[in-house]
Write a structure and sequence with these properties.
InterPro entries: PEX11, PEX11C_met. It comes from Dicentrarchus labrax. It is found in: Peroxisome membrane. It contains 8 helices and no strands. The chain has a domain of 70 residues. The C terminus is likely disordered. The protein is mainly α. The longest helix is centred in the middle third of the chain and has 35 residues. The chain starts with a helix and ends with a helix. Helix 2 runs antiparallel to helix 3.
Length: 237
Amino acid sequence: MQQSVEALVRLLESYRGRDKVIRTVCYGSQLVGGVLSRTADAEVSSHRLGKSLLLFSAQLSHCRTVLRLFDDLSMLSYSHSYGMGAREEDAGVRWISVLTNVADQLYYPCEHIAWAADAELIKVKSDKWWLFSTVLWGTSLLLGILRSLRVLLLLKKKLKRDRGGSSRSQLRRQMRGEVLSVLSSVADLSNAVHWMPPGFLWAGRFPNWLVGLMGTVSSVIGLIQMNAGDSYQTDGT
């Protein structure tokens, strides 16, 4: 119990860890709130609780949007350090990663403008800026899926050639990580399509509970990957 509490505290003390926890609670609240409030014949208390959870989820989502106001420089630093991906062995992975970084970098200012417009800090309509940010997010997710599939293909080829026990174990671990990344991105991409203008695929057709479910799946995978990455670094030191 003590170790679990200490692990949670360490997670919340880091910006990245806190954001993942907030994201998980946000989508989890939307999932439960959507389930409790979706039926007309639900009990009054359950319906009220469902609405409260949906409001709570909306506030956490707004909280994450405000916190992302300060992410531009860290993203710019990462994009600069990655550059044109000269360290990547595969050209496909390199160019997909570069395009992903461009989409991610453009996403932040678009979202900032949309947020500022909603907050009435600037006199522009926020709708098109929210659309731009959603398109960029979806593009980044789609590129991320393609990158993971390409990496999986390369890892599979390495696994066939490799005969060493420890290296094969590491390759399998990397493959599991990429599979989780694909599942997480697909879940997020389904929500990104839902938030597109009506008429585009299944845009606007997801009920609250399904949006919450997709987001919760993605968020839990993110926590698992973060924990696995920390454990891997600990084992390696």
